[in-house]
Specification:
Chain lengths: 178, 211
């Protein structure tokens, strides 16, 4: 499978689970590359959100505390920065704060903006992977470089026994290249 | 202060704590803190006992309660065991009291609980369950953008989420109204609201403690 195909396959697999919900901007309506990976997920599994990145992450945490597995989508890494209060101060600390009694499992998708054929520019193409690895103590940060790793990584994020949350980082340019 | 409750709310339980019980609990925490036994900040409540006791009569034991760094009264009234809470406070966890049963979560980041409370309310609604979510915030938190986003979203989608604004017009020691250029606060009728004077400093007990 190629990069984009593997993403589509993974989303379809997640979409078939009873407890998943996909949320973010461009999950139900076109406008960003991430939409092309969600075309086979039924609309009733999707929550198109306003632009409120931090609230979106908190919404995902809250839904996870009530048993959902949210796949919360941030079309560009640059936009995920706006969700850092909920991501770093809350989701990443909640197990420690609750002595492991609260274990919200959230799957976070983001993407390093593509530079080909159009270069999105300095505010749309940043790769903050290493910084996020340093900031996260409980969230697993995973870079999706190789198409063959994509499905196993999403499967692990959904099934993992430790119920930790996972941040999966895609490359926008690989949608066409790999 | 007499509280105006929105019409859709009803009393669902009696309080296990009197005004004196609540004050005595904080006095006990104060004693441990001043003995140097608590090596983390504590944020004690005082002056709003009647109001919180009245509000918790409307909160079901199955509901979620979200609170902040100043959470001892909320935690006790929602049913967290008194000794468990005291042990947690002494072990340095006062600022992030939480529990699965009863369902209680607090955060020490201004506004941090509101998006999570909104998400819990969204999940409860999606699952057609009957319990609801209560979110206790202060005056400075009420004025933040994240509150207004969450309030708008929760009301437009009719989520089972109640907000309580506890207004002492202070954020640490910063006067909220002065910083926002406000003369008064305009609170929508579907939000429970009361004003009170803070009986303790922002953190600590007001007395010098040698650690």
């Amino acid at each position: 499978m190629k990069y984009l195909e593997a993403l589509i396959y993974s989303m379809e697999w997640l979409g078939n689970k009873n407890d998943t919900i996909f949320l973010g901007q461009s999950v139900k309506y076109s406008g960003n590359a991430i939409y092309n990976t969600l075309k086979t997920v039924p609309d009733e599994k999707k929550l198109e959100t306003p632009v409120f990145e931090d609230l979106q992450m908190g919404l995902s945490i809250g839904m996870a505390l009530e048993g959902f597995v949210p796949i919360t989508c941030y079309p560009r890494f640059d936009f995920l920065i706006l969700a850092c209060n909920q991501l770093i101060n809350h989701l990443d600390k909640i197990r420690s704060m609750s002595r492991n009694k609260m274990q919200p499992r959230v799957i976070i998708r983001t993407s390093i903006g593509s530079k080909e054929p159009l270069d999105g520019g300095i505010q749309h193409t940043q790769d903050y992977t290493e910084v996020f690895k340093k900031m996260c103590s409980e969230i697993d940060v995973v870079m999706l470089d190789n198409p063959k790793d994509i499905f196993p990584m999403f499967k692990k994020a959904y099934e993992r026994k430790d119920s930790k949350s996972t941040l999966l980082i895609e490359h926008g340019d690989y949608y066409n290249e790999k | 202060m007499k509280i105006q409750f929105p019409n859709h709310l009803n009393k669902v339980r009696n309080s296990n704590y009197s005004v004196e019980d609540l004050i005595n609990f904080e006095n006990e925490v104060k004693k441990h803190y001043e003995n140097g036994e608590i090596r983390s900040p504590i944020h004690l409540s005082k002056g709003n006992e009647n109001e919180v006791i009245e509000i918790f009569k409307y909160i079901s034991e199955d509901d979620w309660v979200f609170s902040s760094w100043r959470n001892h009264y909320h935690a006790l009234l929602h049913g967290i065991n008194k000794q468990v809470l005291l042990d947690d406070i002494i072990s340095g966890r006062s600022m992030s009291t939480n529990s699965i049963n009863p369902k209680f979560y607090s955060s020490s980041i201004v506004g941090g609980i509101i998006p999570i409370a909104t998400g819990v309310a969204k999940a409860i609604k999606d699952k057609n369950e009957k319990n609801k979510v209560w979110c206790f915030i202060g005056d400075m938190t009420y004025e933040t953008g994240i509150f207004h986003e969450s309030y708008k979203f929760s009301r437009n989608f009719k989520l089972p989420l109640e907000f309580v604004v506890e207004d002492n017009n202070l954020s640490t020691n910063t006067p909220t109204n002065e910083t926002w250029g406000l003369k008064s606060r305009n609170i929508p009728k579907d939000i429970i609201y009361y004003k009170y004077d803070r009986g303790y400093p922002h953190h600590g007990t007001g007395n010098w403690v040698l650690f």
